[in-house]
UniProtKB/TrEMBL annotation:
This is Glycoside hydrolase family 97 protein. GO terms for molecular function: carbohydrate binding; hydrolase activity. Residues 305-495 form the Glycosyl-hydrolase 97 catalytic domain. Residues 21-287 form the Glycosyl-hydrolase 97 N-terminal domain. The keyword Nuclease does not apply. Pfam families: GH97_C (PF14509), GH97_N (PF14508), Glyco_hydro_97 (PF10566). The keyword Transcription regulation does not apply. Monomer. Its cofactor is Ca(2+). It comes from Flavobacterium microcysteis. Residues 1-18 form the signal peptide. Keywords: Calcium, Hydrolase, Signal.
Length: 695
């Protein structure tokens, strides 16, 4: 009887200790409390149903007592926020930021250390983070682990890629939670983490769907001065725990108080559109730190790039390496003055803003996989690339040049030379740079997703902002909304992009239907769509590689894959060959006033309508997976009473991503706000629509 009485007292103490925070809609409720031993915990309900069971919180510190137990609550602060802000570039011209917040101030009784846990609850999800206030003692923390848990309620369908400290360039797996097993996968580079004590390491964001139709997404926001969070998944009981990427000696993060962790986020809704359209990740970042943003502009560009991936030319001057860094018979160098002028002429003729050139600078003969300290100096062009002549020619055609800085993983070398490289860009009038981080990181032992590299990826756009230069990073850690703070961080790759279709087993038709629910939640992606010659046998009859979409779907990606930096990646001659389809790429905008997610199901389909910035022009993109799809969309987003002309680029009657990918049709019809459009998409297909007001 005494034991039962003690248990009842403990349960009553826990109940009295519990405090709740609700979303403005009151559909989401977070319950926070301290356990019997003083450990912080939380749970999440959606529409009165549990979605996150009681999950523990805490921080493990190196060589000192962990910040996980023995706490008491010393203060609680509540506030509600309803505001709006205008992004420099974005899917919306105005973003609403509405949430309820509670700060729980804790003190550890044995050490006197202070820790705050902050919850923000939005209509589409929950965010929380750790705050480390100035302490009476020990203001320098070495974090050895983060004990954040996300305990799920069931065996959800999950879209996942394996935990890899150096790469996100994987095809997504679609399995039950219980079927996650990254030990069976071919991992990219041997540095990826496999199972640990019965737990499997996967990357966030982790997109899920429950058996009763709830959509959940676990991610993070505002990763600044902290490592990337992967996730440990226990497949037998559906428990998930944070997994921080270590540095070269195994530590996770070094923090000087006052300091904060990134936000841990849980999105939940019974409508997939609420997840894919959410701006919660952006909202959780600090406002822009750039006062004058007039030089930050959207860009559509072409470039000397895809021709190297398909084997027409090479990056290196000797012409002996292909996109897989394998020796090949001698082929022409791509980055020549003459060839670059050809692209500049094409850009000027068709109204493109810029031209990217890769392979322009010395060092490409010996750049990959050698883990060399110094390969590129980012200032010395090959002798057949006259940077002054090209700059003058581009200026005469009103075309901007986009610089390329491949670091080959030698970040120490790049940081030493960064200001000289940016000065060269300013001298020759380059407003944007594409950075690359292929290979293992130097300093040796560091990872792409570790704290020091996160700091580097955030530092480059900060430094570039002083030169009024925009940054597009490739092979970086995946973005977490930091483009709000540094809007010149215009785009990033940080996922398996379209380039893989040129020389590997490619991206399956489902790939582009998953990325908007995962990678793109953190920021715009330079996916480089627009391949028109789908099969690589066009360049070499012995090749079997191909893009796993129809041509019409390549057009639709310009709308469904948001980025203010959009490449028409194919060769100029291929666009001239299919000039009628190319018209959509010429017309489509890259910056928007409004975005409407009309239909969404991760791994299956996505339909998006967007209104061009400062215009009455609308563009629609609809894509499907490997299954053909018929659907009807309403055009009620159009202005009532106005007449419009819709140009529809759709799959032809015999189109199929594998069997007949270049079969497409174009038709023009009159539409209005009351119109309905029937869309028919082939397997791996899509539809792109331009809608212009009739004058």
């Amino acid at each position: 009887m005494k034991n039962i009485f003690t248990l009842c007292l403990l349960m009553l103490a826990g109940f009295l200790n519990a405090q709740t925070v609700q979303s403005p809609s009151k559909e989401i409720t977070v319950t926070f409390k301290l356990t019997a031993n003083g450990q912080p915990s939380y749970s999440v309900n959606y529409q009165n149903k549990p979605v996150i069971k009681e999950s523990l919180l805490g921080i493990a510190l190196k060589d000192t007592e962990a910040l996980d137990t023995g706490f008491e609550i010393t203060n609680t602060q509540n506030k509600s926020v309803a505001e709006s802000w205008k992004p420099v570039l974005g899917e919306q011209s105005v973003i609403q930021n509405k949430y309820n917040e509670t700060i729980f101030s804790l003190v550890q009784k044995t050490t006197g250390r202070k820790l705050n846990i902050v919850f923000k609850v939005y209509n589409e999800g929950v965010a929380f983070r750790y705050e480390f206030p100035k302490q009476d003692k020990l203001n320098y923390f070495i974090i050895s682990d983060e004990k954040t848990e996300f305990n799920l309620t069931g065996n959800h369908k999950t879209f996942w890629i394996p935990g890899d400290y150096d790469s996100q360039e994987y095809v997504y797996n679609e399995t039950k939670l219980s079927e996650i097993d990254n030990d069976k996968l071919n991992l990219n580079n041997g540095i990826a983490v496999k199972s640990i004590g019965g737990r499997y390491v996967v990357q966030s964001p982790l997109m899920m769907k429950s058996a009763d139709g709830l959509y959940l997404n676990i991610f993070e926001a505002a990763v600044v001065n902290y490592p990337v969070m992967h996730l440990d998944v226990t497949t037998t009981n559906y428990k998930i725990k944070s997994h921080l990427v270590p540095n070269a000696i195994g530590d996770k993060a070094y923090l000087q108080t006052p300091a904060v962790s990134p936000w841990r986020t849980i999105m939940v809704s019974n409508d997939a559109r609420a997840i894919v359209s959410s701006k919660m990740i952006l909202n959780l970042n600090e406002p822009s730190k750039i006062d004058d943003t007039s030089w930050i502009k959207p860009m559509k560009y072409v470039g000397v790039w895809w021709e190297m991936h398909v084997g027409v030319s090479t990056w290196d001057l000797s012409g002996t390496q292909d996109a897989s860094q394998k020796s090949v018979g001698k082929k022409p160098h791509g980055a020549t003055t003459e060839n670059t002028k050809r692209y500049i002429d094409f850009a000027a003729k068709h109204g493109f803003d810029g031209v990217l050139v890769e392979g322009w600078n010395v060092g490409w003969e010996d750049w990959f996989g050698n883990w060399k300290e110094e390969v590129f100096d980012f200032t010395t062009p090959y002798p057949d690339f006259n940077i002054q002549e090209i700059s003058d020619y581009a200026k005469s055609k009103n075309v901007k040049m986009i610089m390329h800085h491949e670091t080959s993983g030698s970040v120490a070398n790049y940081e030493r030379r960064l200001d000289r490289a940016l000065n060269v860009m300013k001298k020759y009038g380059y407003p944007a740079v594409k950075t690359g981080y292929v290979g293992r990181i130097i300093p040796r032992g560091e990872f792409h997703d570790g704290q020091s590299m996160v700091n580097h990826f955030n530092y480059v756009p900060q430094r570039a902002a002083e030169y009024k230069i925009m940054v597009n990073s490739h092979e970086s850690s995946r973005p977490t909304g930091v483009s709000r703070t540094w809007p010149n961080y215009i785009a990033a790759e940080a996922a398996r992009g379209n380039e893989f279709n040129g020389w590997s087993n490619g991206n399956p038709p489902t790939h582009e239907t998953i990325l908007p629910f995962t990678r793109l939640l953190g920021g715009p992606m330079d996916y480089t769509p627009g391949v028109f010659e789908i099969k690589m046998s066009h360049y070499d009859p012995s090749k079997t590689e191909q893009v796993h979409t129809t041509l019409a779907k390549q057009l639709a990606l310009y709308v469904t894959m948001y980025s203010p930096l959009q490449m028409a990646c194919d060769l100029p001659e291929n666009y001239e060959k299919y000039a009628d389809a190319f018209q959509f790429i010429k017309d489509v905008a890259a910056d928007w006033d409004e975005s409407k997610y009309l239909e969404a199901e991760p791994g299956d389909y996505l339909t998006v309508a967007r209104k061009a910035k400062g215009s009455e022009n609308w563009f629609v993109g609809a894509i499907t997976d490997e299954n053909p799809r018929n659907t009807t969309i309403l055009l009620d987003f159009l202005t009532p009473g106005k007449k419009y002309k819709a140009i529809i680029y759709q799959d032809g009657k015999t189109a199929h991503w594998e069997k007949n990918p270049i079969n497409y049709e174009i038709k023009t019809i009159d539409v209005a706000s009351k119109s309905k459009l029937k869309l028919t998409m082939a397997a791996g297909g899509g539809t792109a629509i331009s809608i212009f007001p009739v004058k």
